[in-house]
User: Fold this.
Amino acid sequence: MKLAALSLAFVSAVAAQPPFQVKVSGHGHPMILIPGLSSAGETWDTTVAHYQDRFECHVLTVAGFAGVPRVPAPMLDKVRDGLADYIREHNLVQPVIVGHSLGGFVALALAARYPGLPGRLVIVDAYPFFGGLMDPQATPESARQNVAQMRHYMEAQSQDDYERYVKSGVGTRGMVTKDSDLDRLIAWGLASDRTAVTDATAELFSADLREEIAGIKSPTLVLGAWAGYKQYGATRESTLANLRAQYAKLSGVEIRVTDTARHFIMWDDPAWMFDAMDRFLAVAGQPARRTAPAEIKMDARASLAKPLRREVSPGGFSGGSR
Assistant:
């Protein structure tokens, strides 16, 4: 009986754990920043420094990555739905959503499932169908087959094998230019939960939002990179063509491609990224503020009266665990 009670308590605690941690800084219109696979919220440090005098920055670290305890699968659905809850709980009126890689996919999924919640979207080197990233001719079926093989390989790894792979930089060397940034990625990878990385990778590369993004109502800026994929045959033209094809059903999408930065555009060429974002967000003046969407059902003045905690306790939302 005692063992059963302890087991039930453990399961309940895991189920109640939020799918991300949040740190909040700055002031102004809300901006939510989501990092990618195995990455910490510190991915966005320079971005926060650039915008915190005009935006209230809510920086996520996804559960299972960079030392944050994981949540059960499906991970990406939990992050998407947890983010919708977070926006409603804190009365964030159409926040700007900035997502990198896996974080960009989550931003698209959020805007497709809950089109009334987010404001403008900034998608940094992310695709609605990651299974077609390297092979534009890939289909959902072929992607699922590839994912099954990938999952089998990753699950067969021992912890030592996984750590050797992460330390080698084989999967991350082409994503950044500076050695110091590679060291940061390796440290985050070693601090990430191997099973969470496996689950999230499998979910990301088997999902397909190309049809669903037709329901997105938010103005969207997509920033793409190709320099890090040259060794696989990528060119500027092929990358731009793939982006245009994948985002074809997202009305009004603006797509820009950098010729210098690798996957972590915010580190390799921040000036280019900030110029594109500044123009898109119109931060030369005051950011546009639209009326509260029906999904939130709140008085916008309430968000000014409700204080937010600036730092998140481990394992919780900025306002505490739910």
